[in-house]
Amino acid sequence: MAEGGDEQNGSPGLAEAASPHYIGHRERARQRFVSLGPEALADYELLELILQLALPRRDTKPLAKDLLARFGSFSGVFGASVTDLATVKGMGETTAIALKVVQAAGQRFARERVGRDAPLLSSWSQVIDYCHAAMAHNEVEEMRILYLDKKNRLIADEVAQRGTIDHTPVYPREVLKRALQLSATALILVHNHPSGDPTPSSADVHMTRQIEEISKPLGITVHDHLIIGRSGHASLKALKLI
Question: In terms of CB atoms within 10 Å, which end of the chain has fewer, N or C?
């Protein structure tokens, strides 16, 4: 008997007949991504393409829409914890981890753009973008310190403390001790508000002024303290609170 008899009889081959309904839609989205860029895709379409890397044999469109509905936005999906992602029907821990890997790759790309040889203060919008990507959707407060050299180039970007949903204990002397270890001459303080509202609290202002007070005799400048929320940020310097 000749192979491929179904095709010889004029009927579709088994593979073609069994082709899932979503393959055409996925391929069209992929081609738009290649030819027009990610801006041509809706959030659910881009998320669908990312999910299919982990779930290549499934229709990931419904799952993408469920994730966006559950977490509110594209960035909200990637900011969610592995535990929360895995609770969505159809996800599982492996797929949740895959999304966090994509998030980590994006954050590392943004950090490298910030960390080039140019002075950090000359690429302020990129600093904001990076901090927002790294922190806006964290479920607990986190204090990040950007340590700069005398030309305001990034020496180190470090998470100094992690706290609870509404509090991060920060120890000014530890921050300055680390600055001296790195021979840093300037700092940018950054922390997130899990509530989403970046409005600085009195405790935020007090802590910043404490760090400023200790840093001045050491020749270390505090350029700013940025507070990151889901939809924006606040600068204590711009608000003239430091």
Answer: N
> Which CATH number does the domain housing residue 216 bear?
3.40.140.10
pLDDT exceeds cutoff 50 at 14? no
Whether residue 89 is found in the same domain as residue 123? no
Q: Which domain holds residue 44?
A: 21-107
User: Is 9 within a domain?
Assistant: no
What is the Cα–Cα distance from 7 to 192, expressed in whole angstroms? 61
Residues 96 and 122 in one domain: no
Given a contact cutoff of 8 angstroms between Cβ atoms, the answer to whether 224 and 236 are in contact is: yes
Sort strands 186-192 and 221-228 into parallel, antiparallel or unpaired.
Answer: parallel
CA 109 vs CA 38, 104, 105, 112: distances in Å: 16, 9, 6, 5
Task: For residues 35-46, give the mean pLDDT.
Answer: 88
- The closest of 16, 101, 95, 102 to 56, measured between CA atoms, is 95
Query: For the whole model, what pTM was predicted?
Result: 0.66
Q: Roughly what angle, to the nearest 10 degrees, separates helices 93-114 and 124-135?
A: 160
